[in-house]
Amino acid sequence: MTDKKKNFIIRTITGIVFVAVMVYCLLNPITMVVLFALITALSIWELCGLVNRWDDIQTNQFICSVAGAYFFFAIAGYCTGYTTAMVFIPYLFIILYLIIIELFTKAPNPINNWAYTMFSQMYIALPLSTINLLAFSNTAQGITYDCVLPLSIFVFLWLNDTGAYCVGSLIGKHKLFPRVSPGKSWEGSIGGCVLVLIVAGVVGWLYSKELGTLSVPVWMGLGLVVVVFGTLGDLVESLLKRTLGVKDSGNLLPGHGGMLDRFDSSLMAIPAAVIYLYTLSMF
Known about the structure:
Layout: H1 3-26, H2 29-51, H3 61-80, H4 89-100, H5 102-105, H6 110-129, H7 131-135, E1 136-139, E2 142-145, H8 148-171, E3 175-177, E4 181-185, H9 186-211, H10 216-244, H11 259-281
């Protein structure tokens, strides 16, 4: 068996297991919260590990990761009504600690430490935590959990990647963003977008027919938002890796790299979806 074929098999198996775990955990509110808190911590761990390779950067990898996971749990607790706003006090304390401790570390460049410490929270912890705003809602029956929106975001992202890869491999000629990601093409991106819009329209038709919630145009708009910002999220992480001089963020997922490599698109797509849906709800 050639190395290329072996890598393809490993990548396929990992992908199937990854999707199965994601879908299973998103079906239940407890497993969803635990899974994404873990994803948040592992993603921040990877990011801090990458930037700490530079001589003048020394972020506290462990505390940053714990802080991100705690922030996710805090948002989840607040959205479900299990906790009050007081739950954010320990997180604020941790952030203050990470800033003040630089007075005593004698680091060569504390500004870099502060910057990447805050970046880990703003780039990973905050965006991933907004999935709670999609999953939990306050209804006449109280706080309810609905897995459809969070699951749809990831299904759209996966379909976009699949469609972009297939179409780009066949007819891709015009590079989308060659400076950052030379493998992506406009043709592939358009192909992935069309596939997502079709599926979003079908999902909207089925879901709105059954429950009378979001209309088909709104669902298709959601699909477009996820495609655009998911692609931008992928490009942002590609720029980050190029700046740091690495190919993958980690090796936790065989054949797929690290957590950041798997969730880079969702870091932009999830908060963009929240902005889109909450903006529509005001009209």
